[in-house]
Amino acid sequence: MTMLCSCSIFTARSPSILVDKPLQVQAKMSRSVEKTDKQNPETKTNKMNTPTRDFDNASIAAAPREAELAPETKLNLAAIWQDGNPGLPSARNSFNENPEQNMDGLIRRNLLSNLQLVDFETSTLNEAPHQAAPESAAENSESTALEQRDESTRRLQEQFGVTISYGQEVAVSLPVGGAERTLLTLPADTPPAEIERRLAQLRENQIRHIESNFAVDILPAGSQVIIPQSETESSNYHTRAPGFDELAGLEAALMRSQPTSLAINADRIPVSFMQESGRGNTRASYLPEPMGGPAIHVWPASMRFPATQSDDTRNPENIDRQRGLIRGSLEEIITHEYGHRLADDLDILSQENSDIARELGFHRLPSPAANAGSGAERERWSLIGRDGYYYEQYADGWHRVDSQGTSIDENGQSTDPKGAFRVAPENLAEHVAVAPSSHYTTNPNEVFAEGVTYYRLNQSERASFLQRSPELYRVIQRYDQMELDRAYGTNPDGSSRYLRRPDGTIVENSESSRRLIAEFEGSATRP
Ligand SMILES: [Zn+2]
User: Fold this and answer.
1) Domain segments of the chain: what residues?
2) Ligand 1: centre distance to CA 54 (Å)
3) What is the enclosing helix (H) or strand (E) of 20?
4) Which residues surround ligand 1, an ion (CB under 5 A)?
5) pLDDT of residue 112
6) pLDDT given at position 474
7) Distance from the CA of 239 to the center of ligand 1, in angstroms?
8) What is the CA(282)–ligand 1 centre distance, in A?
9) What distance in angstroms lies between residue 283's CA and the mean position of ligand 1's atoms?
10) From the CA of 151, how far away is ligand 1's center (Å)?
11) If you measure from the C-alpha of residue 268 to the centroid of ligand 1, how many angstroms do you get, rounded to a whole number?
12) What distance in angstroms lies between residue 289's CA and the mean position of ligand 1's atoms?
């Protein structure tokens, strides 16, 4: 099975659906830009000295500004993240004071406690290091010792996804939630082996913390992972230990993905950080239940992405142009995988139950005759047009076809593919019934997961999603609500007990929460 996109969902019936020419082009583009996205330790250090842009407040010009919304909207998830850390308890207090937060214990616990990185050690430890660095007499051996320290530092930075800086003390930090967070400070002469030991211990604590708050099991390093590649073949892989940046991205995505990420109705999900690269350019993948899942895999191609959306330093134009192709953060990557999890859990995208494909704006075209019956035929999907035709993706955009996949020219006549009427990607929304929410449009599965991603990721992405594709927004909202109703129940009159606010928090269905959502949606769609 070839996996070319930022994500793959493994499907039981058609293991090779993701192979397609236009996607090869996309993947190439994505790879080349990704190289510049990835940060080696040096550029990472530079980046940290630059203030990061606050994604939540600055990205989409037409998104409602905070001041235009009801005051409680300001209490967004990013704030909880920041304020959940030691020394910043204020959001926690204001959260409790908010009359709307009369929630049951489960939701309260999960909204309040998740985004604390436990055991952040912000002050210097009293404990002395186990060994002091030996003092060197000669200048030569001093410079050798420095070189060795630099070498160890590089290795530890790579291994743990952190920055280690030496001053009056050793400081270990990483950017999370738009700010540099100090993980650990130690005396300046702490030997690298001791820094490593402390970081390994801290990482274990952080993994336990995430596992205790969410329905995930992060597989230990060296575990074997078997992934089916088709109905008869499978591949063996192994896990590695995640960096702190990766744990922070995972935790942020789990926070966004409630209640999918909680074990209310469903099983715990194993999350594997993979040692070997996946096929193609896969950054993360979701293995559905019929194929032996649920399971989430995070591949090396996702390493060194910023942890959270607030750490994404791209400008708004690039974010918009690259949406779905280049990810802003691991938070975005894994939130997408939880979109697949939602579809799998609700069982809405299996072949036997594919009405939702039409709701998502898709029409399945007959597969090419040459592949028919081979069991591995490529699925051909098209988007339903507003003009009675269908639009199939090619390298240079979207081609008009009829319901059987025959190319149609601008006058409505059958033609060969070269003569088909073409629509550029930027004009697609004018021509199709349901515009996708991003450029990642391979099939209904991916469009569903993309919709869930932008619906849940943060307030400005949700506003932008509603502007780009109001039809898809309503479809995703309905399924998101279906899950909330299953998880938290409905009132005797059938109405929902809980709703998702624009900032992602899950609140009681009340007059004020309904008004908040209506005002948000009204101002997002106002021209
Ligand atoms: Zn996907």
Assistant:
1) 139-210
2) 26
3) none
4) 7, 9, 446, 449
5) 30
6) 98
7) 20
8) 9
9) 10
10) 38
11) 20
12) 15
The one-letter amino acid code at 382 reads S
Placement of tokens 């291994």 in the chain = 159
**pLDDT of 399-429, one tens digit each?**
999 999 999 999 999 999 999 999 999 899 9
Contact status, residue 279 vs residue 301, Cβ threshold 8 Å: no
In angstroms, the CA 441 to CA 4 distance is 13
**What are the strands, taking DSSP E only, across 251-294?**
269-273, 284-287
CA–centroid distance, 339 to ligand 1, in Å, is: 8
Structure tokens given for 496: 């929902």
How far from chain centre, in Å, is Cα 325?
12
Distance (Å) from CA 144 to ligand 1 centroid: 48
What would the pLDDT profile of 58-101 be if each residue is shown by its tens digit?
A: 222 222 333 222 222 222 222 222 222 222 222 222 222 222 33
Residues 6+ apart with CB under 8 A from 265: 345, 486, 487
Centroid of ligand 1 to alpha carbon of 340 (angstroms): 7
Return the amino acid letter for 95: F
Retrieve residue 150's tokens: 């630099």
Ligand 1 mean position, distance from CA 23 (Å)? 13
Distance 226 CA to ligand 1 centre (A): 19
CA of 120 to the centre of ligand 1 (A): 33
286: Cβ contacts below 8 Å, ≥ 6 apart: 7, 8, 9, 10, 293, 294, 295, 296, 297, 337, 340, 341, 344, 449
What is the distance between the alpha carbons of residues 502 and 373, in angstroms, rounded to a whole number? 46
**470-488 vs 444-456: helix axis angle to the nearest 10?**
80
Q: How far is the CA of 360 from the centre of ligand 1 (A)?
A: 15
499 contact partners, CB below 8 Å, separation of at least 6 = 481, 484, 506, 507, 508, 509, 513, 514, 517
Ligand 1 centroid, distance to 445 Cα (angstroms) = 7
Query: What are the backbone angles phi and psi of residue 101, rounded to the nearest 5°?
Result: -85, 30
- The Å distance, Cα 19 to ligand 1 centre, comes to 14
- State the greatest distance between any 2 C-alpha atoms of the chain, in Å, as a whole number: 87
> Which tens digit of pLDDT belongs to each residue from 159-195?
999 999 999 999 999 999 999 999 999 999 999 999 9
